[in-house]
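The records we work with from here on pair a chain with its fold. Each token is a code from a learned vocabulary of local backbone shapes. A record is reproduced here so that you can trace the correspondence yourselves:

_____
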Amino acid sequence: MTWEFVLAGLFTGLLVGTTGMGGGSLMTPILVFIFGIPPTTAIGTDIAHGAAFKTVSAVQHRRMGNVRARLAGWMLIGSAPMSLVGVWTAVQVTDRYGDGVEDVMAKVLGAALLFGAIGLFAKSLIHTSTGGEMRGKLSRRDCIAAIIIGAFGGFIVGLTSVGSGVFFGLTLLILFPLRAQKVVGTDIFHAAALLYVAGVGHWLAGNVDFTILGWLLVGSIPGVLVGGRLTLAIPERRLRFILAGVLGLAGIKLLDVPGSGVIVIVVLSAALVALLVFLARHTWIRFRARGEDAAPAPSPD
């Protein structure tokens, strides 16, 4: 079953590298429902997997100038300790009440993500220009907002493994005037650091399967590198629509809407085909441009 894990990692890497979202929201259900991994082990392995491959993506986005490191740092102040509280809470609640509490939390988060996807889609339709981008030092309000966002989101991540991308990406888009590319980069940069903290907690709790983790990384690392390059090639407005679509799919899946599995598979399959067509077209255009530049100029008569 190793190649299936590699393929799941590759798909997740492409999605996260391009949008910064969807890793935990999709990988944990894949491990549970497709591969039959126990929920607690799936959550712990997913978090450890996210920490490793998002580090690779974070370095890439940092080099491309897509990261607001100070903003990510302020979020981490709130998210790191609260993620450990979330891990401890998940262990205690699961031991006492079973996995049903995690399902309730997932549905609450799913409703919020679906609402956020609709709002982001509407905002992308109304605003044709990106407006001024946040520059310079962060204000006191920005720092406080970042810490609060980090604390709330960190607890959700530690408790359920979802939210490191979808929740933080959504709040960054709404609260801070950033271009979509910098939302992706900053989100991944912060998530990589946060998931290491939560991953250590799950490792100490014995919730990480390192065999599955290794095979997932074989696919996700090259996938996330390819996806990261796509953020520079995809126009700003289209990238926002993609972000909204990923939020919506994650929300539908977490809400366990009837037929959600079919919806997600159909939409993601169509998106994968569109992505391959886009890559082929983009590569062909660049190849032709290089060929024209290399062609010798016609000699004058």
Q: What stands out?
A: Residues 2-129+148-258 form one domain.
